[in-house]
Structure formats: structure tokens, C-alpha cells
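Example S7 (C-alpha cells).
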């Protein structure tokens, strides 16, 4: 099961203690999307991310859409 839990700042320490009290492997905590966004922004700024200008390929997309009408 996957769940997103929002914990009030006042109870974070208690929540973390409760999570730590569970058997090992019972809970998997993944990082927030902030880490992924930061990673991608860094890649983009460093020129390591493959990007395509919007104008490239737009004609193909437009033709496919028009053909569906």
C-alpha cells in the first residue's frame, strides 16, 4: 500500500519515533518530489538534459490532430 501522510510540525518527532519503532522493512520512506525536481533543474542548467525546442516536431503533432477531426 502506498500512502501520503501530512504530519503537523508539532508531531513530526513523535511520528518519526513511531516509524522507527516498527519492524525493519515494514515501512519504506521515499524522498519527496522536491529532490527529483532539484535534480532535473540542475541537469537542465548544466546542459546535461536532452531537450527539444517546442517548434521542432509541432507540425507532425498538428497533422495527427487534424487527421483525427
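Recovered sequence:
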Amino acid at each position: 500500500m502506498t500512502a501520503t501522510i501530512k504530519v503537523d510540525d508539532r508531531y513530526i518527532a513523535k511520528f518519526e519515533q513511531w516509524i522507527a519503532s516498527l519492524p525493519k522493512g515494514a515501512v519504506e520512506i521515499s524522498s519527496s518530489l522536491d529532490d527529483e525536481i532539484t535534480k532535473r533543474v540542475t541537469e537542465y542548467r548544466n546542459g546535461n538534459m536532452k531537450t527539444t525546442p517546442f517548434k521542432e516536431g509541432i507540425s507532425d503533432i498538428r497533422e495527427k490532430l487534424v487527421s483525427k477531426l
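Notes on this example. Residues 33-45 form the longest helix (13 residues).
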